[in-house]
Amino acid sequence: MNTDNIILNGIAASSGVAIGKVFVLEEDDFLIIKKEIPVSKIKQEINRLEIAMSKTKKELEKNQKELNKVLGENYAKIADAHLLILNDPMVKSEVEKMINSGVNAEYAVHEVVEKISKTFDSMNNDYFRERKNDLLDVAKKVLSNLLGKKKKTLTDLEENSIVFAKTLTPADTITMKEGMIKGFVTEIGGKTSHTALVAQSLEIPAVVGLRDITHKVKQGMSVIVDGNLGLVILEPSKETLENYKREYEKQVSNKKELEKFKDLPAITLDGREVVLGANIENPEEARSALRHGANAIGLYRSEFLFLSGKGFPSEEEHYRNYTAVAKMMMPYEVIIRTMDLGGDKIARLGLMDIGREANPFMGLRAIRFCLKYPEIFKAQLKGILRASVHGNVKIMYPMISRISEIRDANRILEQAKEELKKEGKKFKDDIEVGVMIEVPSAAIISDVIAREVDFLSIGTNDLIQYTMAVDRVNSDVAHLYSPMHPAILRLLKTIIDSAHAAGKNVGMCGEMAGDPAYTAVLLGLGLDEFSMSAVQIPKVKKIIRNISKTEAKSLVENLLKCSNMQEIDIILKKFKYKQNLF
Fold first, then answer.
1. What is the pLDDT of residues 171-227, one digit of tens each?
2. Of 82, 110, 194, 390, which one is the catalytic site residue?
3. Those residues with Cβ within 8 angstroms of residue 386's Cβ, 6 or more apart along the chain or in another chain
4. Confidence (pTM)
């Protein structure tokens, strides 16, 4: 087979370029055979399951300690998610039920996990589909212990290795810190998979979602991973290799140069200053935000609190968590998004009256769920309100699609304030309240919404997906997902203009805000605040400091005249070339 310069397209999960040799991490193959277990031996079979689960628990706890030591408490919580799955009483109960029907433990585990996996597959959201991979990782560990198999590890790595695997577990990622792994490629996963998040934190190039890639490569094969474009190049030609070596050297040089920008203000050549914030999901990530030069937390995803414990978090847990971030970020703002979870996931936290939905991410989720269960919502609001005395805290409601939702949410907020007054607990009475614009209906009536709230924040990930009717993690249609579609540009202009007409600031916390390719466009549209992954902040700041608001505005005026993306692409490339923004 001629493998000269074979180029494969995957999902860009962590930016950067890596050049090295293939190291294939082979999967354990489990042959699961259904065996009939006599009634007299069912107790013994359940005991086998208990022993295997106990061993798995010890392994996961060891991983947790290792991750904490190598990557910090923030990423040790990845192992927490695996422990939660292992300890899920619903899963264990289903497995034991099958064993009691007279089948062996291995078969019972396999069948229950397959059934749950199909539920995850139906979820129209990349984050929750990634949780299926966590479930499969835990199941493999339990099966390994039931069958007495040992998991293969990355101990045989040589320098400049690029790991190819079906998937990688949190334990595998520990090796990444040691400098042996230059990049990785997986068959499954997306931008929100745990391994992708760790790779982004460690700034290791990664491409995911390349089906059957482990069967297309050989140990020691030369390879290039382009985490910027989502490309994997097998057996690169001499010319391609030289080009990428130059790109790698440029990458190293750029990284050093970006260090100079992290502590400078995000101000254009003609004096227009914008806020550059970070998207975080727990207190530890606020430290990273400050290290990378953030002057705000533009999106604090509170879902992690709901998923990292048993049941719903208490008011006190909310308060402690948000207070830690508020104090750390003073005097900068911290925008806390209220819980944004779907019904299927909430059912696992104890609300058994929530049935399975065919499409949970257009169903009972986010603000809709909070309004249906006001006591759960109120506990979070009270925690946020109490934390507001310790910093510059703001509240943001997700997935707003109509005015009545804002008013209903604000009524519950007022009830929370009244209860705190009666309890003698301090809070900031004039706390600012904003909403996320991520549904087309909200974008269209953004002028009306802007008069009801203190600020707007655009969630481009869902807004683009819903507007374009494109699932961005579906490989068959992902190419249709584009922030530069004329309809998206016009929609963004409508939202930003509506906010400004009402005298309100507007930010953006979707991936588009952290992509340097769109910084000039967003600046020209008039965006006041950009919020992104912390590692992107210096890159975006560099562009802002090297262009003028006037030039960016002129660029957008030209883009808005375009009728298709090809015209937009040509104008954008000319602008970048002229401004030396490549």
1. 565 555 556 788 989 988 776 566 676 677 677 899 998 988 988 998 889 999 999
2. 194
3. 315, 319, 323, 420, 425, 426, 427
4. 0.70
Whole-angstrom distance, CA of residue 400 vs CA of residue 467: 15
Span 237-245, average pLDDT: 94
Report residue 455 as tokens.
């600020």
CA distance 360 to 122: 9
Identify whether 22 is part of a domain.
yes
Tell me which range, 136-150, 251-265, 290-304, is most confidently predicted by mean pLDDT: 290-304
Q: What is the pLDDT of residue 1?
A: 40
Contact 346, 354 (CB under 8 A): yes
32, part of any domain: no
Known active-site residue 562? no
Determine the Cα–Cα distance for residues 220 and 161; give it in Å rounded to an integer.
Answer: 8
* Residue 60 belongs to some domain of the structure: yes
Bigger pLDDT: 197 or 532?
A: 532
Q: Is 264 left (phi over 0), alpha (psi -120 to 50) or beta?
A: beta
Question: Using DSSP, how many helices (H) and how many strands (E) does the chain show?
Answer: 23, 16
Residue 342: predicted pLDDT? 64
C-alpha span between 485 and 482 (Å, rounded): 6
Q: 90 with 164, same domain?
A: no
What would the two tokens of residue 169 be? 């577990």
End-to-end CA distance of the chain: 36
Residue 523 is assigned to a structural domain of this protein = yes
Structural domain tally of the chain?
A: 4
In degrees rounded to 5, what are phi and psi of residue 43?
A: -60, -40
Q: What one-letter code names the amino acid at 530?
A: F
Find the domain containing 527 and state its range. 256-272+437-582
400: closest CA among 465, 459, 328?
Answer: 459
Contacts of 463 (CB under 8 A, 6+ apart): 437, 438, 439, 440, 443, 488, 491, 510
How many Å is the maximal CA-CA distance in the chain?
82
Residues 64/79, Cβ–Cβ less than 8 Å:
yes
- Dihedral pair phi/psi, residue 578, rounded to 5°: -65, -40
Confidence of residue 145 (pLDDT cuts 50, 70, 90): confident
- Strands, E, within 354-499: which ranges? 392-397, 433-437, 455-458
Angle at 420 between CA 418 and CA 421, to 5 degrees: 65
Nearest to 533 by CA among 91, 46, 15: 15
Q: Which of 431, 462, 488 is the last residue of a domain?
A: 431
Q: Which of the four pLDDT bands, split at 50, 70 and 90, describes residue 414?
A: very high
